[in-house]
Amino acid sequence: MSKAVVAVVGRPNVGKSTLFNALAGERISIVEDTPGVTRDRIYADVSWLDHEFTMIDTGGIEPDSSDIILSQMREQAQIAIDTADVIIFMTDVRQGLVDADAKVADMLRRSKKPIVLVVNKVDDFDKHVMDSYEFYNLGIGDPHPISAAGKLGFGDMLDAVIAHFPEPDILDREDDTPRIAVVGKPNVGKSSLINRLCGKQRLIVSDIAGTTRDAVDTRVRFNKKDYIFVDTAGLRRKSRIQGDIERYSIVRAVAAVEKADVVVLVIDGAEGVSEQDAKIAGIAHERGKAVIIAVNKWDAVEKDNHTMSDQIDRIHKTLSFMLYARIIFISALTGQRLGQLYEAIDQVIAASTMRVGTGVLNEIVAEAVAMQQPPTDKGKRLKIFYVTQVAVKPPTFVVFVNDKKLMHFSYVRYLENQIRQNFGFEGTPLRMITRQRD
Ligand code: GDP
Ligand code: GDP
User: Which Gene3D superfamilies match (predicted)?
Assistant: First the structure.
């Protein structure tokens, strides 16, 4: 199920990070074990009432001369327009309405994206709510006064945000056409790959009425099957701001990954895998998406007998949390092995939606337990009653045990590996949940 994406746009110092941190709460720590990603706080899971959404902070503007600020804000706003379902446009009651706000508001209004205008730093509602009225002049609707620092006004603001979410039946499409996000650092060849894959069909953009999100999706037919590449507009537009290119590529990846079933992580084969690739890979991993690592520019790599296995070793080392990913070597330039990419997409989707029966699963687990005894502590041994698969996308297993405290991380890993060895699941992460049963 894909979650709505909400982007926050606004001048430096209006309080975007403060709002972000206040809403993200502790949930952000869930992703602790993925390198790099959380520290940047570029995105967070937010839940409000029974709604859950992903919030992205397009921020990262260096306060500099006002010219640069405006052009960076435009860039930010454009990314929000490309990627988000709803945009929070944040202003500051203390600084009042400034020219840059008006210019960015114009741009947002023309995009026809749902906008929620937020006026921050209204720390004392009784005294200062009136001051937020001047922001009606922006012409993008009612100002919602908040205090990000004091956590005031959040309820009304979030109600306004949620009111703009696409209808659930649109979000959860009955259509089971695979949705694929092509992500990666700048210049690895994402646009070239999309152009190759989509060919002339590039121009055929689905036009389901009322779904802004589909305007950037491209539907492709291959071997009599349909595929949808999501967020392809984001690929076409290149950031001009050097310093923020990395942040922007992550923001875009978050939004695209959220809407996809399969993530194709493109890396530059000529350059080799890097830490920045790991950050983007981490997003797909956390989101539980099926993953294919496409090592691109293979035409430009000088090869001998070891080149491929050396690359695989390096990828496994750098993306050690993702040993399950499929790896293929391609060239967007020559078209080498692009057919295999579609095959891989079919295969990893099959893996991420596979269900294993409880009977056969427990035979495997019983064998695994016999081969390697569960851990003990102070004379008490972990007992596994049974294991059952409770969900797909990603496949999720609940392990019922006598005492949760006895379950070690390494034993969970062991069980996961046994399940993988017996059933496959190549290309998809697995979730393992331990439950105590008395
Ligand atoms: P960003 O650059 O938009 O991400 O802004 P920050 O979140 O870093 O906030 C900029 C400054 O405004 C910081 O000093 C915050 O403490 C302050 N600030 C943020 N929200 C509020 C608020 O609701 N009231 C007041 N008085 N100050 C705030
Ligand atoms: P993006 O920023 O990830 O979308 O990357 P582009 O698609 O714009 O490609 C960046 C550069 O790499 C361009 O100069 C492409 O021509 C080049 N490129 C892309 N794919 C390949 C490939 O398979 N082989 C070679 N040799 N060059 C490639």
Answer: 3.30.300.20, P-loop containing nucleotide triphosphate hydrolases
The token pair that represents 353 in the structure block: 């939606």
Report whether pLDDT(203) > 50. no
pLDDT of residue 77: 83
Pocket of ligand 1, candidates 11, 13, 20: which has the most ligand atoms within 8 Å of its Cβ, to mutate?
13
What pTM did the predictor assign?
A: 0.77
Spatial strand order in the sheet of 179-183: 218-222, 225-229, 179-183, 262-268, 290-296, 326-329
156-165 tens-digit pLDDT: 999 999 999 8
Q: Is 411 exposed, middle or buried (0-12, 13-18, 19+ CB in 10 A)?
A: buried
- Helices 66-83 and 245-258: angle between axes, nearest 10 degrees: 20
Ligand 1 contact via 403 beta carbon (within 6 Å):
no
Whether residue 394 has its Cβ less than 6 Å from ligand 1: no
Beta bridge partners of 126: none
Report the mean per-residue pLDDT for the chain: 85
* pLDDT of 201: 46
Q: Which of 220, 236, 208 is nearest to 180 (CA)?
A: 220
Task: Give start-end residues of each CATH 3.30.300.20 domain in the chain.
Answer: 358-436
Q: What is the position in ligand 1's atom list of the atom closest to the CA of 12?
A: 2
E-state strands within 41-169: 43-48, 51-57, 86-92, 115-120, 143-145
CATH 3.40.50.300 placement within the chain: 4-164, 175-353
Q: What is the CATH T-level fold of the domain 4-164, as seen in this structure?
A: Rossmann fold (3.40.50)
Report whether residue 35 contacts ligand 1, using a CB cutoff of 6 Å. Answer: no
Q: From CA 235, how far away is CA 206, in angstroms rounded?
A: 17
Ligand 2 centroid distance, CA of 216 (Å): 21
Q: Which CATH architecture has domain 175-353?
A: 3-Layer(aba) Sandwich (3.40)
Please give the C-alpha separations between residue 55 and each of 108, 251, 307, 316, in angstroms, as whole numbers: 18, 10, 40, 30
Q: Name the DSSP class of 82.
A: H
The SS3 call for residue 322 is helix
Fold of 358-436: GMP Synthetase; Chain A, domain 3 (3.30.300)
Asked whether 327 and 295 are in contact (CB, 8 A), the reply is yes
Residues 284-297 pLDDT 10s: 998 899 999 999 99
Centre a 10 Å sphere on the Cβ of residue 1 and count the other Cβ atoms it contains: 8
CA 139 to chain centre: 32
CA 257 to chain centre: 4
